[in-house]
Design a protein that fits this description.
heterodimer; A: about 260 residues; alpha/beta; Rossmann fold; six-stranded mixed beta sheet; 8 helices; about 20% strand; B: about 625 residues; alpha+beta; Beta-Lactamase; eight-stranded mixed beta sheet; autophagy (chain B); FUZ/MON1/HPS1_longin_2 (chain B)
């Protein structure tokens, strides 16, 4: 997941401030770790506070530098969240496909973001831990970037028996949140939607690429976004960000999987 | 193991003997010039010669109280001490010898002087069958280390102490048969599956642990346990809660009790009961300190007001939820105690040894790049402090730093994130009522970029820690860090730190060629810092290290036992012979093989002291950068 900086130098580059939110232990840090280092750690210890990471994502026409706030999911840190999403241009709201309560929590975060964050914020709803479901194998090869895409339409209930005829159904399917339920919600709220596995890497880069593509041009023009505050001036140095010619405002298609060299 | 202790009325010049080895009754002493003499030794020995009194003794004249606060007021000779970066705190209760210090204070300066100047007698003790215990006070003093332990003066047997107060209450930690399974101490006990099938098995494994920590609420709700989960041990929690509240009810709180070789220590903190159960032969005081550190960790997560609030609103609050995610911090802290932590034992910090001018250069860089929102800035290499910058009016508390170092280096959470961290943390020693915000990033010492990857080991990782009271100051501190690291790269400081880290701690044989010593701990009391030799070879396995730490625990407890004023303590056991030497300036603990000659041991000890004195400004941070 190294990036070919040489090829990118000519392209305009913009910073995008992105925040990850979601219940504890859904895999926020693991998603970031997969995206930034292409790495995965089993039994990772809970994040304390928040971690700040950066990663570049190369689109055909420009380079997006993600400045990622990976927040801790525990409730006692919830009051700090506004500090991280206040000026964010994008948010990943993550839930665990094996834990229905985490989707409920995710909905709360979405509501809070819609109420409090910058109006133009791009929100992606991400169901993580796809590797624990029976969809894992078939999903491994292909991305499912489309909103409303339903990889396992039959999987309506938590009953493990009713999943598609998986060869190894005996393994059991830990999925508790049907794709349809989450994607319907995402569509309703105008969110990007993905199911991912940080463990296998399925769809992880796609999420970030889709977000990069979905960031409105206007918000890229202003660099860090209109409301950039909290002393970030230093970070914007050396970034030739201003000539954005490409229309990235289109939200939804997000098919540019190949665009990200990360 | 039988034991003896001095009553408070007896001072270190008392004579004694030991029964297991006989020394000539009186060895010739090197003549020393006597400048003054002010104490009267016991009648059966002649007055000892007094060497010239070094400057360091002036510190003594200030009285014991100043030592206790780690801010001795002797600015002329010890100009930097008053600005020592760390100080003890009452909240922390991290001074293992606190009770003893109180006694010491009461025991007047005169005695301290006397004990230093008249180190002529050996204070014996009754010896048990299994080991010989001997306390010897050698001649000489700080100003004349070469002569210290040059010869021993053994006097005739003094009167056997009538009031034995349990100086050595612990048998030896039998690491020999523990060797194999101590490592399993830290393995999880496993889960009981839904049908409860393995419960017995799991409980068996739980019971096999040598050390347990339990935290429960006064209402009897389990909050945290090192091993197992609340469900598994709920019955025990119930029993514990009943016992504790029984004594609470009768206004006679239960502090500790023993059952066979198992010790139970209880600390009550507001709505919380903290319980340690140990079969590792630790003293009440040591276990109490450990529990207090765990309590500090809880405060650090929640702050005192919010903890109080939670329980005042609802006494049956389940604290597990608010503490969610910080369990690993408690566990790693607990495990560091179980493994044996010199830092906790001595209530002191360890520093990375670098040249004074190099440290000064880093200090200056820190000060130059300092931003307005900075409260504390630290450079820490694998739990060893490299530099500290702080405001004039605030010092740092060892207990707080222990929590930070535990979080940064022991618990993987911060490091595994791979980026920069921004962590709200309450430092109870600094202020238990609110959060500070901590910026942490790791340096990559192997060149190539500035962030360490996860292959760097704990000892090798170097963290820049910048603390602010302003929760919005992340980017400001990030700027500072970048400027600071850039400057350090330019002036070669990074390389210096890397080299110092690579060098590691010295072996005892590097310091004293051919020494019998295997390991030592040296605590500079005024600086609240310690230094030690490498764990290499001899103590590389976890169980051997545990045995070493048990020996130190033992020594420390003996020499800090209440109502004793032991200055030197020699202890021989089946696996080691050990030696402790305590003065108002320092505490030295060292360990040699079982059959080490006592004189050789003592000579090496004085060489270590000499070495530390020479290297003092490299080993310890004296002053630190202040703004």
């Amino acid at each position: 997941m190294s990036e070919s900086t040489g090829a990118n130098t000519a392209k305009p580059s913009s910073s995008v401030k992105l925040v990850l939110l979601g219940e504890a232990a859904v895999g926020k840090s693991s998603l970031v770790l997969r995206f930034v280092n292409n790495d995965f750690q089993e039994n990772k210890e809970p994040t304390i506070g928040a971690a700040f990471l950066t990663q570049k994502c190369s689109l055909p026409t420009r380079t997006i530098k993600f400045e990622i706030w990976d927040t801790a999911g525990q409730e006692r840190f919830a009051s700090l969240a506004p500090m991280y999403y206040r000026n964010a241009q994008a948010a990943l709201v993550v839930y665990d496909v094996t834990k229905p309560s985490s989707l409920t929590k995710a909905k709360h975060w979405v509501a809070e973001l819609q109420r409090q964050a910058s109006p133009g914020i791009v929100i992606a709803l991400v169901g993580n831990k796809l590797d624990l479901t029976n969809d894992a194998n078939e999903a491994a090869g292909e991305a499912q970037p489309e909103e409303g895409h339903e990889p396992s339409p039959a999987d309506g209930d938590e009953a493990t028996e009713e999943t598609q005829e998986e060869p190894d159904a005996s393994n059991g399917d830990a999925r508790k949140v049907p794709t349809r339920e989450a994607s319907a919600y995402a569509e309703e709220e105008g969110l990007l939607f993905f199911e991912t596995s940080a463990k296998t890497g399925v769809n992880v880069v796609d999420v970030f690429t889709a977000i990069a593509n979905a960031i409105p041009e206007s918000s890229l023009k202003s660099g860090r976004g209109a409301g950039a505050g909290t002393g970030q001036t230093s970070l914007s140095g050396g970034r030739p960000a201003e000539d954005s010619r490409v229309n990235l405002g289109e939200r939804g298609p997000a098919t540019a999987k190949e665009g990200c060299a990360c | 193991m039988d034991s003896t202790a001095n009553g408070p009325a007896q001072n270190a010049t008392d004579a004694g003997t030991d029964t297991s080895e006989s020394l000539p009754p009186s060895l010739p002493r090197q003549p020393n010039s006597c400048s003054d003499r002010e104490s009267d030794p016991t009648p059966e020995e002649r007055p000892p010669p007094l060497p010239p009194r070094p400057n360091t003794l002036r510190l003594l004249d200030e009285g014991g109280a100043s030592l206790r606060t780690a801010r001795p007021g002797a600015p002329t000779t010890l100009q930097s001490r008053a600005t020592t970066a760390v100080s003890l705190t009452d909240i922390g209760c991290h001074d293992a010898g606190k009770e003893n210090h109180v006694v010491r204070e009461a025991s007047e300066t005169l005695r301290a002087k006397a004990s230093l100047n008249h180190l002529t007698s050996s204070r014996g003790s009754e010896t048990g069958d299994t080991a010989s215990i001997r306390s010897s006070v050698p001649q000489g003093d700080l100003g004349d280390v070469e002569n210290v332990f040059g010869d021993f003066v053994a006097t005739d047997t003094g009167p056997i102490r009538k009031h034995s107060t349990g100086l050595l209450q612990f048998p030896e930690f039998r690491a020999d048969d523990v060797e194999d399974d101590f490592a399993s101490e830290f393995e999880p006990v496993g889960d009981v599956d839904e049908e409860g099938e393995h419960e017995e098995q799991v409980l068996e494994r739980w019971k096999a642990k040598r050390k347990h920590y339990l935290i429960l609420s006064a209402a009897g709700k389990p909050i945290w346990t090192r091993h197992g989960d609340g469900g598994l041990i709920s019955t025990y929690i119930g029993v514990i809660q009943t016992i504790i509240s029984f004594y609470e009810g009768s206004k006679d709180p239960l502090r500790s009790f023993s059952a066979g070789d198992t010790k139970f220590v209880i600390v009550t903190k507001g709505p919380l009961y903290l319980v340690a159960i140990s079969r590792l032969l630790e003293s009440d005081t040591q276990l109490k300190l450990q529990l207090e550190a765990l309590y500090m960790q809880i405060l650090s997560t929640l702050t005192l007001p919010s903890l109080t609030h939670l329980f005042s609103v609802r006494p049956s609050t389940d604290l597990k939820r608010p503490l969610q995610g910080s369990e690993t911090l408690l566990s790693t802290l607990a495990d560091s105690f179980t493994k044996g932590s010199p830092s906790t034992l001595l209530s002191a910090l360890e520093c990375l040894k670098i040249r004074k001018s190099h440290r000064q250069a880093i200090n200056n860089t820190l000060l130059k790049t300092k931003v307005s929102s900075l409260l504390y800035g630290l450079v820490v290499a694998g739990g060893r402090l490299v530099n500290v910058v702080r405001p004039k009016k605030h010092s740092l508390h060892p207990g707080d730093l222990q929590l930070l170092f535990n979080m940064i280096f022991e618990a993987e959470a911060v490091k595994a994130g791979g980026g920069e961290s921004w962590i709200p943390v309450c430092l109870p020693g600094f202020n238990s009522s609110g959060y500070l915000y901590m910026y942490v990033s790791f340096l990559d010492l192997r060149g190539e970029g500035n962030t360490a990857d996860d292959t760097t080991t704990k000892e090798e990782s170097v963290a820049i820690v910048l603390i602010s009271a302003n929760k919005e100051s992340f980017f400001e501190l990030q700027d500072m860090r970048n400027a600071f690291v850039e400057q350090m790269e330019k002036n070669g400081s990074i390389k210096i730190i890397k080299e110092a880290v690579d060098r590691g701690r010295p072996n005892t044989t590097d310091i004293v060629p051919g020494t019998v010593l295997h390991h030592f701990l040296y605590k500079s009391r005024a600086n609240v810092q310690f230094t030690m030799s490498s764990y290499n070879h001899e103590f590389s396995t976890i169980s051997r290290r545990r045995r070493l730490m048990s020996t130190y625990n033992n020594l420390h407890a003996s020499i800090h036992a209440k109502h004793t004023h032991v200055k030197v303590h020699h202890c021989v056991s089946q696996s080691s012979s050990s030696f402790a030497w305590v003065t108002p300036m320092f505490e030295l603990y060292c360990v040699a093989g079982a059959n080490a000659n006592r004189n050789a041991l003592a000579q090496s000890a004085s060489k270590i002291i000499e070495w530390v004195r020479q290297e003092e400004e490299r080993l310890f941070i004296i002053g630190g950068a202040v703004f």
